[in-house]
Amino acid sequence: MDGEQLICEWGRICAKVVSYSGVDTAQVNAFFSRLQPQAMSEGFLMLTADNEFIRNWVETHYVGLVKQALVDLNGIEYAVLVEVDPSQLNPAGGMAAMPPIASPPANAEPSKEGTSANHAPQAARTECESSVQSSSETADSLNHAVMSALEAARERAMRSAAAQMSAEQVEAVAVPARVEQTTPTAVVEKPRRSSAFTFENYVIGDSNRVAYSMAVSVAENPGGTRMNPLFIYGQSGLGKTHLIRAIENYIETNMPHLECVYVDAASFVNQYIDAGAEHDRNKQSYRNFQNKYEKADVMLLDDVQQLQGKKQTLDLFFQIMNNRIEKGYQVILSADRAPSNIDMDQRYISRFNSGGTFDIQPPEVETKLSIIRNFMRDYEDMNPESTASLSDEVQNYIAENSSSNIRELKSAVTKVLASIEAFENDVIGIADVRRLLEDHFSGGAMKKTTIEDIQKACEEYYRVSHADIVGPKRNRDISYARKMCMYLSREMLDIPFAQVGLAFGDRDHATVMYAVNDVESRFTKERAVQEEVETIKKIIRNI
Question: If you average pLDDT over residues 448-452, what whole number do you get?
Answer without folding.
Answer: 81
